[in-house]
Amino acid sequence: MADSDLYLVYHGLPLPKVAHSEESLKYFQNFQVKDDDVFAVTFPKSGTTWMQEILPPLLNGGDLTSVETIPNWDRAPWLEETRASVVLDKLPSPRAIVSHMQYNLMPSSFFKSKAKVIYVARNPKDVLVSLYHFHKMAKFLEDPGTFEEFSDKFLSGKVMFGKWTDHVKSWRNPELGDRILYITYEEMLQDLREVLGRILKFLGRELSAEALDRVVNHGTFKNMKTNKMSNYSLVPEDIMDSKKSPFLRKGIAGDWKNHFSPELDAKFTAIIQEDMKGCNIRFPWDE
Ligand code: A3P
């Protein structure tokens, strides 16, 4: 099981103690979701920071001030993390909120609300690669060991927020109806403007072409890497050592090909397919 010095275990899911506490989870459970809150939900390393960059300006008419002046964790906070209770009650509505929680663990007010959800999925092979490098730079996580060892941990859900497959499946609940929009990291990479157009339509909002261009431009990997409000350079080196691996590392699809042996690829694919059996979810990377 998870190292108890580094993780607290919440409904079986290991959550890093650096950002989660009994108090933060109490706040999470009792949180009053508003109908106009907009959630970006992800398994870690699937594009959360990217959503924190593009969602606030989409909700405020294209104004980039918050993205240029407020760190990502305060401008679109994680509902389950310790910063939430400090910043969320002061955020103007409509609020952009992020979460790594599985659907069934969301606070009870979420289920009664009309709050919308954008679920971002990423090829789990690239999620694994990204998380592996994150473990090397984040001092609050254990050393990942070899890539093969770490892939076993990932597949058995002994990493933060548990199993990727459980997360993805939980958020396919039909109860969500048209409250949820499913997008992928790969689609964002391919054509961010098109995806932002879909998000705007889903949220019932409009932006001028010029404002949309600004948000797209701001959300490129190159520009986010130099935005100190988004590139984690504000985090002290004894917490995240970006010399070991920058938080905004490569920002590409398919880096898994540089990490997986053919044997690991076959094993990983078989285990994910087995876990996803019978749930009728097709992702672009399955084709
Ligand atoms: P890599 O480690 O593969 O580079 P999260 O924010 O959920 O922790 O996800 C982090 C991953 O998203 C990292 O992946 C990071 O580089 C990538 N990412 C963040 N912003 C991005 C952007 N604008 N374009 C492409 N990838 C981005």
UniProtKB/TrEMBL annotation:
<dbReference type="InterPro" id="IPR000863">
    <property type="entry name" value="Sulfotransferase_dom"/>
</dbReference>
<protein>
    <recommendedName>
        <fullName>Sulfotransferase</fullName>
        <ecNumber>2.8.2.-</ecNumber>
    </recommendedName>
</protein>
<keyword id="KW-0808">Transferase</keyword>
<dbReference type="GO" id="GO:0006584">
    <property type="term" value="P:catecholamine metabolic process"/>
</dbReference>
<dbReference type="GO" id="GO:0005737">
    <property type="term" value="C:cytoplasm"/>
</dbReference>
<keyword id="KW-0128">Catecholamine metabolism</keyword>
<dbReference type="GO" id="GO:0008146">
    <property type="term" value="F:sulfotransferase activity"/>
</dbReference>
<keyword id="KW-0963">Cytoplasm</keyword>
<dbReference type="GO" id="GO:0006805">
    <property type="term" value="P:xenobiotic metabolic process"/>
</dbReference>
<comment type="similarity">
    <text>Belongs to the sulfotransferase 1 family.</text>
</comment>
<feature type="domain" description="Sulfotransferase">
    <location>
        <begin position="35"/>
        <end position="279"/>
    </location>
</feature>
<dbReference type="InterPro" id="IPR027417">
    <property type="entry name" value="P-loop_NTPase"/>
</dbReference>
<dbReference type="Pfam" id="PF00685">
    <property type="entry name" value="Sulfotransfer_1"/>
</dbReference>
